[in-house]
Amino acid sequence: MAFKILAIDGGGIRGLYAAYILKRIHEELGIVFSKHFDLIIGTSTGSIIASALAINYPIEKVVMLYEVEGKKIFSPNSFSLNGLYKSKYSRRYLEKILNKALGNKTLSDVQDTRLVIPATDIANGQVFVFKSSYLDEFIRDKNTKIVDAILASCSAPTYFDPSRVDNYLLVDGGLWANNPALVGLIEAIGKLKIDKDQVKILSVGTGIGHRYYEIDGAEDRKWGLSNGWQGSKLVDTILNLQSISSENMVKLVLRDDQYLRLNFNSDVKLAMDSLSILDSLKSKADQTFTYQINNIQSFLA
């Protein structure tokens, strides 16, 4: 029997693309994600969606979160200088709406599936992975609120302040696992001892952007953080590259019938806080679902 993993990329507001595709899958194919998938993993914005699905919070309400609350979540801090002086945004409003939606549920409250949320421990220079209590040895996170794990995973440098969870100082898991499919695969075959040939991964992205920096005049540009690298654009680039590299590695390890990637490409860069692309994200999601419906249905059978 196949061991089924759902992996959801990071990407800020672009999470609407992933959430909308999953909404279509739920509504039209009747998939109850916590029952269908043996492990659900999500990074950054993907951790919001993954956590909601793991505790059976309605996916249509997750879609509304992006559409309705996105503008307030990405309301700029005063005098942040586009993330150069302090973080561009406060996480207070995101925390408020997550608490309203998910309440005080902890990772030990996840019962129907396994939930994994990557973050980054910047105090110790280590990767950090939140896990629900699906193995007896997993005791560190059992009392951690799901909301706290999400906020840590969403704390992208320059966008949000680091998040303190117990004795750890954490930021966005996207720095090393923006596409968490590879992490999910390693968890399955490493910790859970699943035969690699039994693993199937549905991986949902949030778009891959291009043309982050112009080559014309690059030699004459001053490559400081604020001018040449342009602050948060560097973070966007790193997360973009991590998603691509993870996809390539998973494709090398798994057969074509074990891995289905749903994503789209953009001719321009895709920022995590671009509220002007919400309608475009839904349109891209509809297009992906329409063209891939037969592949999705067959893969999930």
Question: Would you kindly provide a written description of the structure presented here, covering whatever features stand out?
Answer:
The chain is α/β, with parallel strands linked by helices and 301 residues long. Strands 1, 2, 3, 4, 5, 6, 7 and 8 form an eight-stranded mixed sheet that branches. Helix 1 crosses helix 10 and helix 5 runs antiparallel to helix 6 (146-153). It is 41% helix and 14% strand. It has a single domain, classed as 3-Layer(aba) Sandwich (Cytosolic phospholipase A2 catalytic domain), CATH 3.40.1090. The mean pLDDT is 92. The protein has helices spanning 15-29, 33-36, 45-54, 59-73, 92-102, 146-153, 174-177, 181-191, 232-253, 278-300, and strands at residues 3-8, 39-42, 114-121, 126-131, 163-165, 168-172, 199-204, 259-262. The protein is built from ten helices and eight strands. A motif (DGA/G) lies at residues 172-174. A motif (GXGXXG) lies at residues 10-15. One of its GO terms (biological process) is lipid catabolic process. Residues 6-185 form the PNPLA domain.
